[in-house]
Amino acid sequence: MAALAAYIIKGIALSVRWQEEGDAGVRALIEAGQPFLLAFWHGRGVMVAQAYWRVGGRRIKILISEHRDGELIAATMAHWGYGAVRGSTKRGAVRGARGMLRAAHAGYDLAISPDGPRGPREVLQEGVVELARMSGLPIVPVTYSARWAKRFASWDGFLLPLPGARVVVLWGEPVRIPRDADTDTLIASQRALEATMIGLRQRADARVGRLD
Question: Which domain of life is it from (predicted)?
Fold first, then answer.
C-alpha cells in the first residue's frame, strides 16, 4: 500500500504545473546549510514532500503520529528517502519531541503538521513553537492549493491535486523563536504563526480560485 501511495503521489507531482512563491527564504537557508522546521497544515501536507525536494531540500525527519494511519504515511515517506519520528503534539508528544531534537542536532531539517493528528483543523498546537525554541531552528511555514483537486470529507479537508493541475505553493518567511522566550512570548508566537499559516492557505486558495 505504501509503495502504491508513493507511486501515485510521485506520478501526480510529475504531472502537475508547479508555481512557487516566496521560496527565496527557504532556498537561502538550504544554501547556507541552516536546518529548519517545516510547518504545514495536516490537510495540505501530501504535496509538501515534493515541494521541499523542489527547493533543494534533501535531509528531513517528519513527525508522524503513532496512530495506525501513521504507519502508512511513514512507510510512504520512506520510499522517497525521508525519515520519520513517531509521536505527535498529543499522543507520544514527549517521545516525539526527543526524537525530533536528536534529528535537529544531527543536522536534519524537521517537518510537523501542528494541527495533527486529529485536529481541530488549522488550530496550531503549542508543540511546534516549543520545538523551535528548544532546537533553535527557524520555522518555515508552507502550503499549497490547486483548483483541479479532490477535497476529501475528512476532519482536515485533505486536498489532493489531480494529474495535470496547476499547484501553487506558498512559502512563508522563516520565523525564529528565542531560546529564552517566556510564556507570554511563546503564546504570542503561537497565535502569530497560526494566523500566518491560515493566511498562506487562504492566499494559495485565492490564487487558484478555490472557494471551499
Answer: Bacteria
Q: Domain with 11 in it: what CATH number? A: 3.40.1130.10
Q: Which domain holds residue 38?
A: 2-208
Q: Is the dihedral of CA 66, 30, 198, 19 positive or negative?
A: negative
pLDDT of residue 91: 46
**Residue ranges of the chain with pLDDT lower than 50?**
91-92, 94
Q: Please list the helix, strand and coil fractions of the chain in percent, rounded to the nearest 5, in that order.
A: 45, 20, 40
Report the interhelical angle of 2-15 vs 68-78 (nearest 10°). Answer: 60
- Full-model pTM: 0.90
Total domain count for the chain?
1
Q: Estimate to the nearest angstrom the gap between the alpha carbon of 120 and the chain centroid.
A: 16
How far apart CA 206 and CA 108 sit, in angstroms, is 33
Q: How far apart are the first and last CA of the chain?
A: 29
